[in-house]
Amino acid sequence: MLFEIVICLIVGYICGCFSTGYFVGKLYHVDVRQHGSGNIGSTNTLRTLGKKAGIITLFGDVFKAIIPIFILTNVFKGQELTRELIVLYTGLGVVCGHNFPFWLKFKGGKGIASLGGVIIMFSLRITAIDLLIFLAIAAITKYVSLASLVGSALFPILVAILFRGTDHYIHMVIVSCIFTLLAFVKHRANIVRLLNGTENKLGQKAK
Length: 207
Fold this sequence. Notes:
mainly alpha; about 70% helix; about 0% strand; globular
């Protein structure tokens, strides 16, 4: 099992290091790291370069999680590691690669779009619930960061509720909690701005 976990993490990390927002910015001759929040994720790309660039970045960050997860769940099918754990560990590698890409001096995005790809591959039930709540919070408050934090916090809670009694239950809950921890660590500045009432709302242009 340990060998499979290590492979999932390594492959996931390599795929996660494909920083979609950075490459999309280069197509526009813009380094998104020099604008707005300095983040290479879809939200800052949207604010900096517009809807088309933001959507491309969003889908790129989602699919860089879906593709390696799809491949590895088939490669390791029938092995000791369950499908759910393959998804979680590969996805964890992707999010770490997105958040801390070695080739950008470990300064990446915040991992929410890639986490979305992980959740899609993990459970469509959790995807539906989490997406509905994410969209509702974003629509009501206009704070993408708040919706992202709530969505990431809900993930391990939903895993704990919906997968109770399954194989490796505690293992899955623990790993899913790591995603939440990573999201909150990467959103430290956003949390401060939310508390101070200075957080940018959806639709605001990057400065």
